[in-house]
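The authors assume throughout that readers already know how a fold can be written as discrete tokens. The format is easy to grasp once an entry is in front of the reader. For illustration, here is how one protein appears when written out as sequence plus structure tokens:
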Amino acid sequence: MKTKLFTRLTGLAFVQTSTQAMLLLLSAASMWLSAPAAFAVDETCASCGQEVSVSGEFAHRKDDASLTIEGASNNAAAFREEIYGKNFTVTVAHLPAGKYTVTICEAETWASAPGERIFSVTSGDATLAKDFDIVAAAGGARKVCCITGVVEHEDDSIRGPLTVSFTTGKDNAKFNTIEVKNVSGAPVASFSASEMAEHFSAAAMQIPGISEPPIWRDPSQPLPARANDLIRRMSLAEKVAQLQNGAPAISRLGLPAYNYWSEALHGVAANGDATVFPQAIGMASTWDPALIHQESTVIGIEGRAKFNDYASKHNGDAKWFGGLTFWSPNINIFRDPRWGRGQETYGEDPFLSGTIGVAFIKGLQGDDPNYMLAMGCAKHYAVHSGPEPERHRFNAMPPERDLYETYLPQFEMAVREGHVGGVMGAYNAIDGVPACANAFLLADLLHQQWGFDGYVVSDCGAIHNIWGSGEHHYVATPEEAAAAAVKAGCNLCCGGDYTALVRAVQKGLITEKEIDQALYHTLWTRFKLGLFDPPQDCPYSKIGIDQNDTPEHQALALKVAEESIVLLKNDGILPLNWSKIKRIAVIGPNADTEWMLEGNYNGHAARPVSILKGI
């Protein structure tokens, strides 16, 4: 069963940094940053008019509540959740013999163009739809269209219950709603994918019976005991939901919602006004680790200021791009400018990249012995330097010397010297093994040799790449992929691919104890940030929003910008002779463009100065 292939927004979305482009990207991303889906062996809905069940290879997917669906009338919520899969069957039991009209309504919220999703629908010997394309039929994405067909049903005792079978031709088959009417036009069964989800896997949703009082919010207890106390109180389904970047709240436990995906490459990104520093390649050009340490300290302060402000107004929750687990720095090696993402790195030298990276991590995480100011995440581990279009299937085969001398030293420095809290696994494979399922990288090197004790997160959609057709296809199913990644040491999934872990446990591919271990490392982040402790205990809880984007921070950004400038050539023009030069022409599309200055993975500069205005 396939979880959707997510084109990672952080990989290419923020290249355009105008306000309009950013809003479009956030809107697009909201389509898949959704409530956790539920994988199931069989699902039964007794409240759907008749006894209705779904069987086969399928999963649930739910879109963000803000997504607009054209033609849904007052039932838009039903079209934001779907059951999808390669081959699955909906069964409606106990219908009398007779003629029935089956109506299946759909809205495409994943594919955006005709031909991206093709599937067929049958009921017994009748074909309800062949090579159906939702986008083509509806005239666009996020528009409702329906499949309608008439079927002859004999008594259940003769040929079994009425069935509606979905078979994929390309990507996945899916449905949002199904209605069955009898010959007089009266509905006898009417249900949506969201109703089916409520009845999935009772065993996975069973809450453990724990009688002892909770200690996970008691700061006097050791962190391991606190984390394990919280974990043992969760059902399997709740544990799996916590292993995705958009971890939901568990209200019965008092656990706030937390989105682990935040960015801070050169300032707090995608979360309103912030101090915007030069791109990472410019930071490296300062050759000044102490200055970069000052910069990242400012980034940590502003991130904490924004988090504290939002959480205080939203029951302790952290929104997307509003958390304290920043997926920075990018310490990949910039070898070939055709990659197109070299501006996000510290350049081509492993030692410089490691040195600047360590300074950035230490400043961002702070120097308190008990709590982190914010948390860094060294990415993308490892050998991730293009080619960008092939990243979801590319198999890097570096010579052993190149691996150890070029691609790994900066990550080892980040762990051993920087004590970085997080590491992000890359999309690519290394010597045939996807990075996020690579025990050599994640267990042998990272934990055993280097002594890493933080959390590992996948790049967004990288778990899907492990099994996806036309991608690595290292294993055959999403359950095998999720299990392989967790077993190798990838604790947290960016995206929804770890929803397959429920079914992986049911299939015996992984144990719940192994999931507990992954969740321990994931929750460790929030304990280290002091998010479960009394505010008076964590010194960073006192940072207010007034410490965001201050004049002092702006002055530091200017200093970093000045220090980042590299003079490659001077044929006598500089310094300018003002006695001879009376006018200066500023030419080009970027001359008076302010958003261009912000780069990518960026925040918004409240008072930007364009090149023209500066001159």
Summary: The longest helix spans residues 289-313. Residues 1-41 have pLDDT under 50 and may be disordered.
